[in-house]
Amino acid sequence: MASLNLRERALAYGPHTLTDVELLAILLRTGTRSTGVLGLARTVVDAIAGKNLLDLAAADLKRIPGLGVAKAASILAAVELVKRHSTNRPQVLCPDDAVKCAHDLLDRRTEHFTVLYLNTKKMLLARETIGAGTVDAAPVDPKTVFHPALKHNATCIILLHNHPSGDPTPSPEDREVTRRLAAAGELLTVEVVDHIIIAHRGHFSFKEHGLL
What we know:
Largest sheet: 5 strands, mixed
Number of domains: 2
Radius of gyration: 18 Å
Structural class: alpha+beta
Number of helices: 8
Strand content: 15-25%
CATH topology of the largest domain: Cytidine Deaminase, domain 2
CATH superfamily of the largest domain: Cytidine Deaminase, domain 2
CATH architecture of the largest domain: 3-Layer(aba) Sandwich
Shape: globular
Order of helices and strands: HHHHHHEEHEHEE
């Protein structure tokens, strides 16, 4: 019944209104004997956290408990369709664009720190999960944040992390991390364009609030 309700929502309001877990639940259709379809979808999302969805391989899915051959094949088929019909990288011009690129953070039960790596035209080159922590903390090392920028030849980055509490208001620690990373970016000539906190009650953009 859960997957039926999700299908109705997708048709009525558009699939963009669903989280990654919910979209995956529609693909999976059913759960296992011990886990409902949403629980299985969450297990899959957690197992592939930090990976580029378009780079998923059969080996990545075979390691996930409860995911049989038919369900794994459905996921791979969906990924292949996206690959065949996606020729352009998304352009990230505003906080809403960035949130769309990291909407799955809403499904995380602990804080995850993610970085979007962009070129001079603000085209998305890569997305990487830098750290994951407790319910209210995700450790962030500047070296870990900026090293992929060199690998991807990024000229600027957008920082994102989630607040599982549902409140996107930045903490003093969030403000300090933003200040440190912005300063490090200036030294490395990699601009920190924004830091966005994502939560169920909305998102907070440091740039929009004049803090970057």
